[in-house]
Amino acid sequence: MNVIDYVIIIFFMGGVFIAGTLLGRGVKNIKGYFSANNALPWWAVMLSIVAAETSVLTFLSIPGLAYIGNFSFLQVCMGYIVGRVIISFVLLPMYSQGKFITVYQAITEKAGIPMQRVMSITFMFTRLLADGVRLFAVAIPLSMITGLSFMQSIWILGIITIFYTWFGGIKAVVWMDVAQWIIYISAGIIALWIGSKILPDISNSLAIVLEQGKAQILDWKFSLKGYNIYSGIIGGAMLSMASHGTDQLIVQRVLSCKNMKDSRKALIGSGIVVFFQFALFMVIGLMMYMVWNGATLGMLGLQKPDAVFTKFIIENLPPVVKGITVAGIFAAAMSTLSGSLSSLSSSTTVDIIKPILKEKINDKKLLHYGRIATLTWGIFMVGGASLFRNMNNPLVEIGLSIASFTYGGMLGIFILVRFFKKVDTWQYIVSFFGAIITMVFIINFTEIHWTWYVLIGNLATIIIAINVLGFVEGFNIKSKIKK
Predict the structure, then answer these.
(1) Which candidate, 448, 396, 335, places its Cα nearest to that of 48?
(2) Angle at which helices 74-90 and 260-291 pack, to 10 degrees?
(3) Alpha-carbon torsion 202, 206, 209, 214, what sign?
(4) In Å, how far from its chain's centre is CA 435?
(5) What is the phi/psi pair of residue 482, to 5°?
(6) What is the C-alpha separation between 66 and 130, in angstroms, rounded?
(7) Phi/psi of residue 257, each to 5°?
(8) What are the domain boundaries of the chain?
């Protein structure tokens, strides 16, 4: 890389740190720190949701996924839109009017504080591993560019992210997400344009890859072992319902909107933006496939498909553009991971610490504990990232698989709370952990694709709940459904 590229990267990362810190000024209480006093505009929250769920993995892993395959992943994105529409009208009314700080407060009235803690701890564990994937993903280009080891790269990014999050609240996270989304989308468009200029005859190259089926989106053949229209729409919808209805990382942003109408616009709009964003980066993968004439990863000297786009950036983008593009990757990672740390911290503080201490703690002290939780989770996240050094599958699939493991059970509990009358707390707990045990069996002893995980876990939760409730109280399940 040129010296000017390094200057741009250092300047930009420092600028993100400073801007995030300044935006976090004036935070006086826990509600301002974790929900921005419900004063954020819906369009900013919408772009923040997009950046939070897709930024680094989209930038690095989706082009690689398209390079080794085709566009079939877009079927999942179609399901994302369906899931967001459903969740906006089914679960959103359940927690948006309660002025909650975390989504798990919404189940306390029916399921009890113990179940709130179980859900919160499950979220923490899942988010820790899933965001370990994100942190490792962004360490790939940093390692390739600087020559540092993966672990050294992870620690550098982790330290910067921890300190950035320590000073900023959710207001800083959301607005920096907006800025980073604009930057990395612009970088992707520029990279696509430059790549198209490298091809001597783009129309001929495109005709060849289209004939090979590289741009195929829809697969109408039903299968439990790969991407098809059924696993895409159903699995994508279920995944989106779980992630945007039960995951504090996303719901924390939704709860920062001014009202439920704005929350709905932010949720549904994010699904549409995500679809076109994924399409853009899959086209980039197709472009690279044409530039390198379909060379295998081994021929390119790579082991992971996630490194394909980074290699293209380093070898083909001119100075300044290269620096801006790489800086966009790093800054997007910092912004996204800061949001993850904020959600982990909020869940720890509000769902675990506050119910234990109750009236013995004031708001100022609670905010102090929230900052300590941010620091602690940051250290754990950096350590979790080291677990993925030997993973060869595309990181975006690893991240989604991890999340899908617990999402089904979590979504199932929210459905039980939303539509069924109150029962004893232990009955919710049995149903939830029964679903987790089911997923352990599915993942370890079957070849079912990750896109079906949330549906299976959700059905397991509800089926177990019906059996448990029916056995204990001996009632017709229809009588338990709210009319």
Answers:
(1) 335
(2) 180
(3) positive
(4) 22
(5) -65, 130
(6) 21
(7) -75, 165
(8) 3-407
Residue 111: what residue type?
A
Closest listed residue to residue 75, CA positions, set 455, 451, 351:
451
DSSP string, 329-363: HHHHHHHHHHHHHHHHHHHIIIIIIHHHHGGGS-H
Cross-strand pairs, 481 = 420
For 3-407, give the CATH class: mainly alpha
* Phi (first) and psi of residue 40, to 5 degrees: -90, 140
What distance in Å separates the CA atoms of residue 455 and residue 409, rounded to the nearest whole number?
9
- CA triplet 447, 448, 451: central angle to 5 degrees? 140
**90-94, 229-233, 361-365, 442-446: least confident range:** 361-365
The DSSP bridge partners found for residue 40 are 257
pTM of the model: 0.81
Instruction: Yes or no: say if 49 and 253 are a contact pair by the CB < 8 Å rule.
Output: yes
Q: What is the pLDDT of residues 165-204, one digit of tens each?
A: 777 677 878 888 888 788 888 888 988 999 888 888 888 8
What is the C-alpha separation between 123 and 125, in angstroms, rounded? 6
